[in-house]
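Much of what follows relies on a compact textual record of a protein's fold. With that in mind, consider the following protein and its fold in token form.
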Amino acid sequence: MKKTFLAQVKETLVTIAIALVLALIIRAFILQTFYIPTGSMIPTIMPGDRVIALKFWYYFTPPQRGDIVVFKSPEEPKILVKRLIGLPGDTILIKDGKIYINGKLWDNKKVSHIRYYAIGPYGVGEQKVPPGKYYMLGDNSENSDDSRFWGFAPRKNILGKVVFTYWPITHIKVLY
């Protein structure tokens, strides 16, 4: 039996509406893509890379030290991508290019090659991370606007965990 033109239009509109609702749900709660405009995460993420963040990740597990996270800037209405270094209650010290957490050298293979600079109002001397907040650093410490300058990121600002780059094709990789 042939469908009438109106029945075909109605079916197409319903299909488009369902697709739009699913896309909005996925973007709001499951995953979202982000464009990286700056070099603050070099060499891990390059300027112009596109990344995917799992927005649902932190519904099931708390943010972990070493995670690359996407979050709302505590200062301006913009989205940032940085590495989570300090958890609530931690004491952070940047000394001789290395990070010390609670008095111990943070020996993390993901960032062992990176030199961190002790600059900015929250980058010099020991910094105590307040409850419900996190200390974020860019992997390109020399050229990163991060917690050393604006302080601590509230938990409510964390949007998700960045899990891989997908564009350009030559930069595809899993970020763990």
